[in-house]
Each structure stands twice: as C-alpha cells, then as structure tokens.
User: Fold this.
Amino acid sequence: MLLSESKRLDAEFNEIMNSSMRYLFPVRDLDLQIDKANALGEFISKLIQAKFTLIGTGNPDFANKLLAMEYFAISMHLCLVMWIDLRIGKPESAWLSLVDAQRSAKLALRVHESCSNARNLLDIMDGYEAILFPKRMFCSHSAIFESCTCSICDAPFDNCDHISGMAYDGQLCSEISGPIAHLDHVAIVELPYDKGCVVHARVEGDIETDLLTLVETKIEDEAKKGTYFKFTILRAN
Amino acid sequence: MITSTECPNIREKLEQFGVMTSDGIVLLPINLEDAAAVDDCIFLPSVRNVRKLLRNHDVAEVPIVSGTFKALDNRDNSFLLPTIFVAYSYWTQNPDAVSVALNVVASYLFDFFKGSEKTQVVEFGVIVEQEKTQTKTKTTERTTTQISFKGTLEEFEPFKDVVEHALKRE
Assistant:
C-alpha cells in the first residue's frame, strides 16, 4: 500500500469515527443514525480489503494497525446499532450489540497502540451498560474439548508458536475448539466470560417472563411449563 | 488478594510422573493431587499460551505431558493461569528464571487485557520449594509454599514482589 493511500485511509477513518460520535444519542434522527451505521459498514469493508492487500507483504505492523482500526470501527458501528435496536424495540438485540461493541473496542486496544482512543468509547459503553440495562445474570460453562487448533496456521494449538488473542500480520489468533468431549458444569454467574451468554427469561408455571422487558407470555405447550431459567450457553462471536 | 499456604509432596508427586523438576519450571495440572497417572492430568487451557511465552523467552519448562493434553475450558470472568512449580534445585541454579517468567506473564496479561485492567480478575499461583540446612545437626529441612494471587492486573505487581522475596529468603 502506498504511503499516500495509507494517509488517505487514516484521514477517512478519523473523519468517520469523529462524525459517528455525534450520532451516539437517542435524540438523533433514527434514519440519520441508520445512514451513519451503513456508512460505517461500508468503510469497514474498505478497511478489510486494504488489510487483505497487506497480509503477507512483510508489513505486519501496518496490517495490525488496520486490524485495530477495523475493530474500532466495528465497535462504533455496533454502538450505533445498539441505539437503533433500542429505538425499534429490539432490546435483546441491543444488548448483544453493546457487548460485542465492548469486545471489539478491547480488541482494538490490544491489537495496536494507534487505536488508544477506543478506551474513550469503551468508557462510554460501560456507562450505557450501567444506565440503559438492568443488572443481568449470565451463564458460563466448563468443558473439555476433543481438540484445539490455531486459527492462524491450522496446526494443533499445542504445536505452534502463536499466542491466542494476539495479532499476527493483520490476523487475530484464536484457539478453535473441537467438539465437547466432556461437559463439566454449567453455572449461573454474575461475571461471565461472555456477556452474550445471558439468562434472558424466567419460566414459572405457565408464564414466561422476559427479563429485559418484563413482558409476560402465557405458555400453551405443557412440556415447556415448569420453573426454570432460559439462557444461551454458546453463541458465535 | 495474595495468600500463602504450605503444600508438601508436590515434587515427590511430579517425580512419580517422571518429571525432572530440576530441569525447569513445571506448569501444574488442576488435579495433581487426585491424578493417579499422567494421563489423568487435566490442565487449564492457558497452559498452552504460557508454555509458548516461556519458550519464546528461553525459560526452561518441563512438561508433565508432552504434546496434546486435556484442558478444562472454564468460561467465567476470572482469567485462570496455571500454577507453576519451581524446585529448589532449579531456581538456585537459575536465579533469574522465575523473575523472567513472572515478567513474561505480567506483560502478556497487560497486553491481553488492555482496557479492562481495573476489572479483569486474574488467578495465578507459584509454588516455591526451599531447603534449609541446619548447621549444627547438618540436617536439611525442605518446605514447599504456594503463593496464590487473585485480583485485578493493577494488583499484580505486589504479587511478583512477594514471590521474588520468597525466592531470596533462605
């Protein structure tokens, strides 16, 4: 990538991120928020394309910088999506957007020092979590997996030198778990690994209560009546 | 929170498994006490990353299980690091190894949890073996102490100091 192209991308990134901040308020026009989210989505695609042209060209630091910018832009995008979801009556979806936005901001901070501003957005989102949503309960699980491979090199994770959670030439290293060999336990916790694994409903008798909206729904199916919580154990993120 | 407890017979158990404790740091399984054989050992998934980090920084590590091992993935908010065992015979010959290992782990944690240093809880432990020879009776007394840490990254530095202090005490 040419230096002039890189500078143009930096300038475009700063412009779109700064202007997006202005839309992180519920009083903004919904259509304008949607337009801004779409514009961010297009810019993210552009960043991804630019990053792919750099991978393997011997410029790992710049590829990592683009990866960090991508995560930061995704975080801003999801933050806008959270407001949009709330305004169109999708609170659970808004919650998931928020926790994924928080996760993306943390990844941006981790991957490259050029995105240290993501900390400010993270602080704003922590405020949203405290003010916009009630205290939630989560589930976590503990399991032994049959295998674990590296997302960077596809080798068994024990055999390569990549460290999970770190960026290598514009790619984030993850441990890809195989099938569950043994499920040790599932627990309801206050502080989970993933806030997307959330207890979302309580069933008492034939009434299911949505724990975000408090809307009650009558259960007709006899097999689904009882006393229990409904939650998501695993989700892709 | 930093706690210190006595935990005897670690080296003996490892040597039963054929682990040469004098050759390096040992990353312990979570069920060492109950494991009857090497194949019973279950580790934390973070062992994989810690092992690579130590290797990258030339800190000798002696694996209990070579190659693929059983790892219990625990998905709650605490970030669990393996407890490491340091035999007296190793650390007296390699006085800087534990310090390097702790710095490597600390650096990894700070990189990994940028943005959540104040909230992310980490659990880690170091088991240090010590020997003291009584000059009058010429007998050797061996103690094994586990120094455990549970807290946020901002509280990690004092833990490193406690471990390093324990290694200097003879």
Notes: Helices of chain A lie at 3-21, 30-54, 60-87, 91-111, 118-132. The first strand of chain A starts at residue 138 and ends at 145. The two ends of chain A are 30 Å apart (CA to CA). Chain A has a mean pLDDT of 91.
